[in-house]
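Chain A, query sequence.
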Amino acid sequence: MEDRIHDAIAHGYVENEQGRKISIENDNGINILGDIIQSSMYSPNRKYYGNLTTLAYTMLDHQTDPKNKYDTPPGVLAHLETLPRDPAAWRLHKRIDNIFREHIDSLPPYTKEQLEFPGITVTNIQVQGNLETYFEEYKYDLINAFNDNTTQTEFYDIYATMPRLNHKEFSYKINVQNNGSPKKSVIRILAMPYRDGNGAIIPFDEGRWLAIEMDLFVKTLNSGNNEINRKSSESSITVPDVPTYKTLVEMTENRQNLEMYESATGIPSRLLLPKGNEEGVEFRLLVAVSNAEEDVNDESIITMNKYHHYGVRGVQPDKRPFGYPLDRRVPDEHIVDEVPNIKETMVKVYNHNVFIRLPHH
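Chain A, predicted structure.
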């Protein structure tokens, strides 16, 4: 099954159930591969390419009782709630990630002309506030883990406390020069590690595959200098913590606005920054500005106050692939210096082993 996917990447196309060849040597190719590997309803040929991800999880999960001879209950890999705690899950994710990389690296690198946004220059990038993470004690509501019929849960508040990572708030200050008429732009902020675990500098082409998207938003650039201030809490990549059931009931009864919790797709806001360390982990912070008129799928989306990174009304708003402009190979990192609408700066992420405990009554 996996060999068939590798074969499709090598040939540059997949075959649907009717035998028609569908090219994957384009920006949409990674979406087609995703449909195949995850075997969604959009897979062009589920019978031939199978369901690699689910089958791999099932094989790992049932390795102690593969034929169900002893009626062994499902393991941690069978449940999304426990799956991330198993190191085997991450090894499997890495294997699948490498399949996508094999495809992406087979595509030609972006040219300077493809990366440029004529008339636009990023002149300065500043991070205001310390990039600092810390651990905090957090109280989880466990009320939904109990059977209301057997436990008088309405008389009790049932919680568990555990440490979790969070970060101090910070903001970006970005200066962009527009030498032409006002333009709508898409501003992407990405961070990529600068050194490996041994302290050696990571080559740009290797580091770009380790890059993380920090934010992506639409902004109108007026003629002349534009100063853009963006808070970390405004990131379109992240979502706030999901409130407890009790909190949702109380907010509903009080007719409070729940709009901020509608988007459930994204990483938690508190995990926007990597952990860091006391000396400071170095990252390249890269800002890329591109033309919103060319990059946005649905024109109505660019007029919204909140940019929904993972889609709205069934439409993926960004035409560009995830991770653009670092998704494809970068044989010569100096091309970034030659493109005026892309600029990078060095930052450090700190963690001073601070642990904030909840007040105990």
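The first helix runs from residue 2 to 11. The chain has a mean pLDDT of 87.
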